[in-house]
Amino acid sequence: MLGATSVMDEESTNNPIYDKHTLGASGATGGLLAGYNYHLRHQWWLALEVFLNTARVNIADNQNYAPQSSYTVDLQGNGGIRILPAYAFTSDTSGHLILGLALANFKIKDTGNYGIISKTYSQSGFETGLGLDTALSQHVTLRGDVIYTSYASMYANGVTITVPAGIQNYRNNLSTLEANLSIIYNV
Predict the structure, then answer these.
(1) pLDDT interval class at 115 (50, 70, 90)
(2) Are the beta carbons of 187 and 139 closer than 8 angstroms?
(3) Fewer beta carbons within 10 angstroms: which end of the chain, N or C?
(4) What CATH number belongs to 2-185?
């Protein structure tokens, strides 16, 4: 599977004052998926799949004046499980919904924009999406998906850049929007 991922971060801090930013970035993603299709009746199918993606998407908010600092969020990859109810339009083409659970690895780092923090964490999320696939041969299918994932809010404490230093509270609401193209081998 190859595709593109956009990561959105609604980030806020609240010490010494409340500050909120919406940041985003896009990058390439690649991964693997494996699953099983079950024929329900007539043109209806139900698929269950597991997936593992790698991505290197970096959101950066840089302060380019003295003192120089930056706030960054990195998406390092995700994996999970999905259910795909599908409807066959023709014998070779079908469309599907995507409902799933994902677990992603993120890293936040602030070198002085809002405070000081460096934290790597995993966060769970819920996926929804749509897809279309068409058979290229008896065993090979081309599949395209668009998937939106909303991750649970992440709360972390860092250090303020004020004197005297205090606790800086970080909150990140992260989500991703993916567009993927996959070659599926059907056994």
Answers:
(1) confident
(2) yes
(3) C
(4) 2.40.160
